[in-house]
Amino acid sequence: MDRSAELQYPVVGVVGAGVMGVGVAQSLAQTGHDVVLVDVSEAALARARMGIRNGLRAVTLFGSAEDKKRAGDPKAVLERVAFTTDYGRLAGADFVVENVTEKWDIKREVYARLEGVCRPEIIFAADTSAISITRIGSVTKRPSQVVGMHFMNPVPLKPMVEVIRGFHTSPETLGAAKRFLAEMGKTCVVVEDAPGFVSNRVLMLTINEAIFLVQDQVASAADVDRIFKGCFEHKMGPLETADLIGLDTILYSIEVLYESFNDDKYRPCPLLKKMVDAGLHGRKSGRGFYTYE
């Protein structure tokens, strides 16, 4: 069903075709938006296309009745996504969500490119787990139109988003962000701009400490996760969650917290660093604390 006439933001630019960018693009396409998905290489875009196909299968297998209804026909969903390396295609976007890796030099360069092609009234939503929204806004000509939008993985199956208000983020931008998420069928909680915000300031410490437990041979990864699932009724344990997010992303996020607070409690576990150096990044690499086919 074509919903474009009902949408305030019918064309959405999604920058970064990694795990989160793919999830955001899929979720938008499922809700009737036309998506321009931008990345730096054709290889990344080919992986993204396959990722959306796999994501649609996951909704079919594990999603609620409402999720399945929203997903619609997989072929139609894919046809709403334009895969491109050309930032110029974002000139027609009504809203932009940036999902590139959690490295400041890379993000700063992306926003310079966005400024060069996007219309002046367009809002930039930064999908980041730790980097300051105020800092991102400072490298643009529209800081009042920059907002944090921390999606959770897998995006199509998560109904809530953590929205972050930067120092200059205007009430109008927050209102637009809420309307945009409502078009995706999602609710949000607005929090202030502080390192790690709410979710990752707590979650990254939990994951990091769980990795220390494995390093110190207190328990195996499987037993750590079993305790969290069996005792606290969490759907996933902290190390399963780490594999899902990506251990490289976990490390980047903890390093940002460590740098921001200058507090030893955010010191990355040496085992985490070793695993990232070894290329054991979790699900996306096929091996992390667990092995994936």
TrEMBL record:
A GO biological process held by the record: fatty acid metabolic process
GO MF annotation, one: oxidoreductase activity, acting on the CH-OH group of donors, NAD or NADP as acceptor
Domain 3-hydroxyacyl-CoA dehydrogenase C-terminal: 196-292
The keyword Membrane appears for this protein: no
Annotated positions binding NAD(+): 16-21, 39, 102, 107, 129, 153, 284
One Pfam short name: 3HCDH_N
Site (Important for catalytic activity): 150
3-hydroxyacyl-CoA dehydrogenase NAD binding domain segment(s): 12-193
Alphabetized UniProt keyword annotations: NAD, Oxidoreductase
InterPro entries cross-referenced by the UniProt entry: 3-OHacyl-CoA_DH, 3-OHacyl-CoA_DH_NAD-bd, 3HC_DH_C, 6-PGluconate_DH-like_C_sf, 6PGD_dom2, NAD(P)-bd_dom_sf
Protein name: 3-hydroxybutyryl-CoA dehydrogenase
Native organism: Sorangium cellulosum (Polyangium cellulosum)
